[in-house]
Write a structure and sequence with these properties.
The chain has helices at 16-19, 23-41, 45-54, 75-80, 114-130, 149-161, 173-182, 192-205, 209-212, 227-237, 350-358, 389-393, 395-413, and strands at residues 94-99, 109-113, 138-141, 164-166, 187-190, 217-221, 240-247, 252-258, 265-267, 272-277, 291-297, 308-314, 316-317, 329-330, 335-336, 341-343, 346-348, 363-374, 377-386, 418-422, 437-439. β6 (217-221), α10 and β7 (240-247) form a beta-alpha-beta unit. 42% of the residues are buried. The protein is α/β, with parallel strands linked by helices. The strands form five sheets. Strands 4-3-5-6-7-8-9-14-13 form a nine-stranded mixed sheet. The structure holds adenosine-5'-diphosphate and zinc ion. Residues 100-103, 221-224, 243-248, 310, 312, 333, 336 line the site of adenosine-5'-diphosphate.
């Protein structure tokens, strides 16, 4: 049992001793938990076999650096072991299952014991409290419930914290806005693409959230987004946006979260051991350098996952955070290594395109990148919604905007994509994570 009700909650901290633990005590705790999780993991078929092959045992680990004796675990390993290959507990100790949303390829299953759920809820309460949510707040959870971890994960965290929790789920824009209005919602959890969509719906309904609603805080995550999108959301709703990062393989949300300083996401190092590696060599990169985030669960019972290659690209932000939390911060996720596409020899992350687009006020809240191959020549088309219908009818302004977007994108990407401007709300939207890239090239 890792979860304790004996925490001290203060004005600033949900769990003061856990959040302000000294770096030495944190390291000792991590080492202790790493050994213990290794022991637990060896009960699973996957790790049991793997450890035996290389002669790895809990007593092989005598320092945190010894984590490197443990082989990496990849998404493919989880797929190959689907559904029960990583399970360490008998079925009568399991109380929940989720699956990853399957953004890329086949989904994978994750199991939780009661203690796993307690720890997870407590981590999320810690996150939300850190960002300023307090009992008395009304919390509306606008993400999919069900197999996606964002719904139930935040739900139980919010109830533990003592927020009035409204499980409004994904979609249903107008009803969401009605609920926000009728129950004076002050805190929301929402994915960035839905936050952008709701802005358009509110504008159409003539609602000014700054005047007509009581929103204060939004937890925004589950998919990559840029600083520019954060600013748009903050400006429109008149709120503070805090970045929320997690993945099903590591419980779900609650892995790393922004504090009120909004300068990086504290990764809860008492629950996860963090490494940043070069995705090609798999060697650790120096602190401050971008690489692939690799995580080890330190408290999980049902399904510990060791040295999991998240494919997410980020870096550790050097230095201490003024908020006083010892847990190190990761930077905004640049994207997954699988999101990167290569066009005409240039490596591009969709987020780079977003950054440029969202800095241009005439650009609306939705866009899609299309890659095509015409007569053996690759072509990149960026289809962009404009903010104002008149644009599409005013040839001169249209051409000016097209030129500006192409020029700014060339500055960032060093290649000139074709720009197509379309009317507001005309690009397809999904209830879940946004599909920003359509690659039609036959490879
Ligand atoms: P799937 O891998 O099928 O999408 P998940 O729902 O577990 O399943 O999604 C986790 C992934 O979502 C992360 O690995 C990461 O790529 C992305 N993600 C989650 N939160 C953020 C965030 N705040 N910023 C950027 N990407 C995020
Ligand atoms: Zn901080």
């Amino acid at each position: 049992m890792f979860f304790t009700e004996n925490r001290t909650t203060t004005d600033s901290f949900w769990d003061q001793s856990a959040e302000t633990i000294t770096p030495e005590d944190l390291k000792a705790l991590q080492l202790h938990r790493l050994k213990s999780v290794l022991q637990t993991a060896s009960r699973s078929e996957f790790y049991g076999r793997g450890f035996k092959e290389i002669g790895l045992r809990a007593d092989s680990i005598s320092s945190l650096d010894d984590v490197r004796k443990i082989p990496f675990t990849s998404k493919q390993d989880l797929r190959d072991s689907y559904p029960y290959g990583l399970l360490c507990e008998p079925k009568d100790r399991l109380v929940r299952m989720h699956v990853s949303s399957g953004t890329t390829g086949q989904a994978t299953a994750v199991f939780y014991t009661r203690s796993d759920l307690e720890v997870w809820a407590d981590l999320l309460a810690r996150c939300m409290y850190m960002a300023g949510a307090r009992p008395g707040d009304t919390f509306q959870n606008l993400t999919g419930y069900g197999l996606f971890t964002g719904g139930l994960g935040f739900h139980y965290g919010a109830e533990r914290l003592g927020l009035l929790t409204i499980p409004s789920g994904a979609g249903n824009s107008k009803r969401q806005i009605q609920i926000m209005h009728d129950f004076s919602t002050s805190v929301i959890h929402i994915i960035p693409s839905f936050a952008l969509l709701l802005m358009d719906v509110m504008s159409e309904m003539g609602i000014d959230p700054r005047k007509d609603l009581s929103l204060k805080i939004a937890f925004v995550g589950a998919e990559p987004y840029s600083e520019e999108v954060r600013r748009r959301i903050e400006d429109f709703y008149g709120i503070k946006v805090y970045n929320s990062y997690g993945l099903s393989e590591m419980n779900g949300p609650g892995v790393a979260f922004e504090c009120r300083c909004q300068s990086g996401l504290h990764l809860w190092e008492d629950a996860f051991l963090v490494e940043i590696v070069d995705p090609k060599t798999l060697e650790p990169v120096p602190e401050g350098t971008y690489g692939e985030l690799v995580l080890t669960t330190l408290t999980r019972e049902a399904m510990p996952i060791l040295r999991y290659r998240t494919k997410d690209l980020t870096r550790i932000i050097p230095g201490n955070c003024p908020c006083g939390r010892v847990h190190r911060r990761i930077d905004r996720i640049r994207g997954r290594s699988d999101d990167m596409f290569i066009i005409k020899g240039v490596n591009v992350f969709p987020i780079q395109v977003e950054q440029v687009l969202m800095n241009i006020p005439e650009v609306g809240n939705n866009y899609v990148i299309m890659l095509r191959r015409e007569k053996n020549v690759d072509e990149m088309i960026v289809r962009v919604e404009v903010t104002d219908r008149i644009f599409v009818e005013d040839m001169r302004r249209l051409q000016q905007l097209q030129k500006k977007i192409a020029h700014d994108l060339k500055g960032e990407l060093l290649l000139t994509p074709k720009i197509e401007l379309v009317e507001p709300n005309s690009l397809p939207r999904s209830d879940g994570k946004a599909m920003r890239l359509i690659d039609q090239r036959i490879t």
